[in-house]
Amino acid sequence: MKIRRFSTLDSDFQANLKQLLAFETAQDDNIDVVVANILKDVKRRGDAAVLEYTNRFDKTDASQLGELEISQSELVAALEGLPAEQRAALQAAADRVKSYHEKQLMSSWSYTEADGTLLGQQVTSLDRVGLYVPGGKAAYPSSVLMNAIPAKVAGVQELIMVVPTPNGEKNQLVLAAAAVCGVDRVFCIGGAQAVGALAYGTETVPQVDKIVGPGNAYVAAAKRRVFGVVGIDMVAGPSEILVICDGKTDPDWIAMDLFSQAEHDELAQSILLSPDAAFLDQVAASIQRLVEEMPRKDIITTSLTDRGALIHVRNLDEAAEISNYIAPEHLELSVEEPFAFSKKIKHAGAIFMGRDTCEALGDYCAGPNHVLPTSRTARFSSPLGVYDFQKRSSLIMVSSQGAQVLGKIAATLAYGEGLQAHARSAEYRLK
């Protein structure tokens, strides 16, 4: 395997970095056409369309959509049927995720001005949320925890989960996670047709207010198209990890941390920044040796060869500057004083501090959400959280006395904009 190496001392460093980070996010036109037609059909024909596409793509043979709903008793049975150690781990992870997200709850607030005018903000939860969970071979119970728990903590009244089950293949750990999280309804449907069912509603699947959760290119395209009809969490790109290391961590640890994202898929990105050139050599050697024992060797090799890099920097301050430019999804600070160093970081989805804090812990059980901004969007967006399932309404209750002051201000500005009805509406309240 040949993972690219370059240095900030290179005259073409900026060009190399931009090329490394370049990722085509534009939607494939063919996929977009297929998705548009599916969504239009689901909107028009409801259950019949969803059932037709599900039977075709997932090779199911249901005669009506209701047959593809999983009962609560089946979810509970899946949980109870897990090996004791696996069930305990699932519950422990859920408890930690819940504990963390409970601290994110926003509260309503208000204040009263001297003339009796009340202003404030009222926080309410979304009524119904749809959760898309990959199924079949790509089954991620951790995604159920990370999407469902903050929704439930926020107070979402009904959580509808959709999960494809190709050839009837149900992942028991995913179903168990749904039971642990208190998911209200689960349908064995996936793809663009599932997104359409959630967005528009059908005779069987209720319309939701927001759709969250990862999926393939068809799911991503469908989420883009239904945004505005419903809310969405984000359209995520390939997974990313950036490691900043001072050269004092075991190189095998760092190599495996890079693998932890590279093994997701061939487009994932793993980058290491270090001021110690000899350490970069050691990590490169660890990569060559350890990759041979990895079950997903081919995926890791392609990912690291095509999109990975070992970058030599002048010092750790320069590493922080580069990190802020990259705005990575996952950032590991494998340095002596990680918490102090974290103050130099402005843009990152999640910051993992210290040599013992591998990114994998955040994926499963540390507590913070693993649904994170990718493709440099951490410059302006945040991890999924309780706040994504709450919304804010402004509160305004103007007193009679306050109306005398505000009415004149509003009328003056309204006349300036040529909006006479606005002005006169405010003036009616003047005494």
CATH homologous superfamily label of the largest domain: Nitrogenase molybdenum iron protein domain
CATH level-two architecture of the largest domain:
3-Layer(aba) Sandwich
Report the total helices: 17
Number of strands: 15
Biggest β-sheet description: 6 strands, parallel
Average pLDDT number: 96
Strand content of the residues, in percent?
15-25%
- CATH topology of the largest domain, by name, is Rossmann fold
Contiguous low-pLDDT stretches (5 residues minimum) are: none
Q: Roughly how many Å is the radius of gyration?
A: 25 Å
Query: How would you sum up the global shape?
Result: globular
Strand line-up in the sheet with most strands: 1-12-11-10-13-14
- Overall tally of structural domains: 3
CA-CA gap between termini: 81 Å
* Percent helix range: 40-55%
Structural category is alpha/beta
Q: Given this structure, which CATH class of the largest domain is correct?
A: Alpha Beta
List keywords for this structure.
6-stranded parallel β-sheet, 16% strand, 431 residues, Rossmann fold, 3 domains, alpha/beta
